[in-house]
Structures are given as C-alpha cells and as structure tokens.
Amino acid sequence: MTPSLFEGTVSLRTILFALVPTLVIAWLVAFVAGRLARRALLAVVGDHLLPSSPLVRGPLRLVSFATFVLCAALLLFPAFELAGLKPRTGVPLRAVAEWAFASGLKILLIVLFAFALIRITGLLVRRFEFEVSKGTSLDALERAKRARTLGSLVSNVSTIAITSVAMVTVLDQFGVNITPVLTGAGIAGLAVGFGAQTLVRDIISGFFMILEDQVRVGDSAAINGTGGLVEQINLRTIVLRDEEGTVHIFPNGSITTLANRSKDFSYYVITLPIPYHEDVDRVSDILRDVGAELQRDPHYGAFILEPIEIMGVDAFTEWAVQLKLRIKTVPQRQYEVGRELRKRIRRAFDQHKVAVPFPERLVAVREGADPR
Length: 372
What we know:
Elements: E1 6-7, H1 12-45, H2 54-82, E2 86-87, H3 93-132, H4 138-173, H5 179-195, H6 197-211, E3 220-223, E4 226-233, E5 237-241, E6 247-251, E7 258-260, E8 266-274, H7 280-296, E9 309-316, E10 321-329, H8 334-351
Antiparallel strand pairs: 1-2, 3-4, 3-7, 4-5, 5-6, 8-10, 9-10
C-alpha cells in the first residue's frame, strides 16, 4: 500500500484490521446475492437445466464476483477511516453513512418486502397443493400431480415478477435511469406478444386444462378425432399414444375437441344380435346371470362398479333383433372386462341353446320354369 493513498503514518496491522472485515462482509454479501440469483435463475430455466450445468454456474459466478468486487470497493475506504487511517481517495465514510440512511434503508426494505412476498406465495402454493391432494383414493395421486404442476407454474411466475420489479426499484435507488429499461422491456414484451401468440395461447389453454382437470395422465381420450392413452400433460402440449404405439403430440391451443373416455368411470357397451324366434326376456335373464357371475369373480369383480344393465331392444335388422347392454367399470378396465363378458355370453348361449343369428336368404324356384 503506497503512502500516497493515506495521510500520515501507515502500519500494516491497521491496514489488515480494516481490510479483513471488509473482505468478509463483501464475501457474505456476494454469497447472499449468489443464492438469490441462483433461485431466480432456476425459477426461469425450471427443469430444463441442471444446477451443475455450466450455463447455470457461469452466470452465478459472475454475479457473485461482481457483487464481491463492488461491495469491497464501496466499503474498503470507509473501513480505513474507521481504523484511524485517512485515505486521500475513495468514498468517504460520511457519504456512505448518508447513503445508507437514505437509499440504503429503502433498498433493504425493498429486498425484505420482495423476499417476504416470495415466501408468502410459496406458503400459499404449498397450502393449495395440500388441500387439493387430500384423500386416499386413486384420484388423489392425479390431483396431487395437477396441484404440483399448477403450484410450480404460479411459484415460478410470481418469483420472476417480484424479483424483476424489486431489481428495477433497487436500480432506481442506486441512481440508475430506469426509463430506458422499462421502455426496452415494454418493447420486448410487445414484440414477444406479437411473435409468440401461438405459444401464449398454448400455455394459457394448458393452464386451464390442468386447472379444470379436463384430462389426466393415464386417461383414455380422443383429441381432435384421434384416440389413445394420455402419456404426458404439459403446459404447452399433450402427448397421446394410440393402440398402434404411434405418439401424437397436440399443442394445447389447437385442441378443438377433447373426449375423455375414462373420467371417474367407464362403460363397455355391447350391441348383441338376437334371432327373431328367440324370447328377448329369456335372453335378458341369461345375460343378467352372466353379469352377476362375472361380478362375483375375484379378479374381474374388483373392476366392476355396477351390475350389468340391459338397456333393451335397440333396433330391428333384416335378420336379427339388436339388444343393447352395458357394464360400468373403473377407468381403463372396460375393455378387459368387456372381452371377458363377451366370452362368457358366448359360452352361456351355447349352454342355453340360444341360436346365433346369421343372414339367411330364401330362394323360390317355380316348378317347370326355365332355369335360364
């Protein structure tokens, strides 16, 4: 340390007495700033980048280093004055004290208020997730997943918004002209709004689709006429896999029709042809016995919610009476139960001698007529 920086005599012990606490305080401030920047950055990138990624660690190191240098440069010369030295340059202690009791207190209040808002929002989100995921039913897991998706979205958006407003306000207290910043942000937001209308529409549609619980992962659904099993529900897209294994990806904003085939329960419907000479009431009794037997089965009975329902004669065809029946099952089990029901109906018809109808055609030939 050159003597030209100070007035009077200078000792190494006095310099270290001022330098060490200043560096420690600067390191603590840089550590806190790095933690806050890490949380804000992870809220922006979400699950797309790991915390150990260089794209995350690089900006965080830059923020910590810049904060450390700035804080050390700001506090070093006032620390020299407190240690009894008289520096010829730097920020005087009186100026630092005046700034601390004016803008400094405002910055502290802004930071504390922003931190409190973020914490309160997080507590409300957790409370929302807890209330939505209450219960021990099979639907509780899906409700919990839906609550976590919405809670993560609300938490990230609120964290980014509160942090951005706090940063702009803090810059204003440091004397930075924030008018160009606000103008640039407004122009950028307007450009993004015009250029990403489809993206915004997809995200809004996905948010309300998850909020209203229109469809869940594992549901059997038909989207825009394409049927399959829902594998993923994201804020922007929904992923559907059909029975051939083909994966269909639909942007949420482009969904015009959504048919959920497994919401709360499912039906397996059978249209059964019966010969005209068979008694419909007798066949209905046989079908009810088959349904009751299937419901008593230890394997299939757990999936059946109500006894088989004989809806009655549905239509008359040229060669059979159409009898419609259905059975109510838990979601995603209707096809398994329905195939077993069809097999047992065929077996019961053989046992009770119920004829299986098939098309017949009567040909009349006049005696003595020319066959040509």
